[in-house]
Design brief:
This protein is of the alpha/beta class. The chain has twelve helices and eleven strands. It has one domain. Helix 7 links the parallel strand 3 and strand 4. The longest helix has about 35 residues.
């Protein structure tokens, strides 16, 4: 029994290493490989691929090439078990409607969002029959040759207006578009015990919900910020300014973090992703600023209520507060 447990732990660790190395380096390696091949006798291969990629340029924003086979890989189950991560359902989502789920906080690698909505390892399809989770990520990732094929097969989509509108208008109903709204800026606040959400000026997803008549659903991943320890640089410091510049140029912020082992292995901190109740949103093709502000405020209130209602059952002390900036 002990031997089986040790083997399971080993497999989980390998699965996590795969996820982290993919997250950090696979895109870079794909670019290096393509450049290298251009200067070898195999130059025709990257030339043909890049020519085809240009023709296929808009596919990620037009539904991609999602496959159930990749989303159900066993490796995702082991990744989920490592922490473990868990999906908690608090209300029904009707398959006759479309939704925008705002997921908070970003953390370092958004483990909760990826395992619960980017794969089938946490049982989203079983929990919400007829509803399809569509995790939206940084659009620049879909410009990377070869890497784009991999993330499209997983079922990831660019977090762009065109992509989200396609999912909400041309892919039928029962689509739940998941957006980690705090993005790169929110990742810079990730630290154990800290529940900081960047939301006050993030209203684009609310406007999209109104334009397309998609209900809003708050989601909070408890324990997300406990998976890594980050060196949080003070506001105004040279390092923080460098992070801000990098984020503006590249689209994500370089975080200085370490894990439990070998600096990269995350802490085995349970991550519980709680899906809240939908907020009914009317369809307004040209929403006013007052409408956007109104539903944005309703969303913040619903997110705050969700946090306080579930914080103690998800391992936080009753004194913990959510900070919305």
């Amino acid at each position: 029994m002990e031997k089986k447990s040790s083997w399971k732990g080993f497999i989980e660790s390998i699965s996590v290493i795969q996820f982290i190395l993919t997250f950090l380096f696979l895109g870079v390696l794909c670019v290096v490989l393509m450049v290298y091949l251009m200067f070898t006798s195999l130059w025709i291969l990257p030339t043909l691929y890049l020519s085809w990629q240009i023709l296929d340029w808009h596919t990620p924003e037009r539904g991609g090439r999602r496959t159930a086979f990749v989303r159900n890989w066993r490796v995702w189950k082991h990744l989920k078990d490592y922490f473990p991560t868990k999906l908690v359902k608090t209300a029904e989502l009707s398959p006759s409607k479309n939704y925008i789920l705002g997921c908070h906080p970003h953390g370092i690698m958004s483990v909760g969002a990826f395992t619960c909505f980017g794969t089938e390892s946490c049982g989203f399809t079983e929990a919400f029959p007829g509803v399809r989770s569509c995790l939206a990520v940084l659009g620049g990732l879909f410009r990377i040759p070869l890497f784009r094929e991999y993330i499209m097969r997983i079922g990831l989509y660019p977090v762009s207006k065109r992509s989200i509108e396609h999912l909400l208008t041309r892919s039928g109903v029962g689509n739940a578009v998941v957006i980690v709204t705090g993005g790169a800026e929110e990742s810079l606040f990730s630290s154990p015990g800290v529940n900081t959400v960047v939301m006050k000026n993030r209203k684009g997803f609310v406007k999209l919900a109104l334009e397309n008549g998609a209900d809003l659903v708050p989601v909070y991943s408890f324990g997300e910020t406990d998976t890594f320890r980050q060196v949080v640089l003070s506001e105004g410091s040279l390092g923080r300014k460098a992070q801000a510049i990098f984020k503006q140029v590249v689209g994500f912020a370089p975080c200085l973090f370490k894990g439990e082992r070998w600096f990269l292995m995350p802490y085995r901190s349970p991550v519980t992703t709680v899906v809240g109740s939908p907020i009914t949103v009317p369809k307004a093709p040209s929403p006013t600023q007052e409408q956007v502000d109104h539903y944005h405020q309703l969303y913040i209130e619903a997110l705050t209520t969700l946090f306080h209602k579930h914080k103690t059952s998800c391992g936080l002390a009753d004194t913990h507060q959510i900070c919305i900036i």
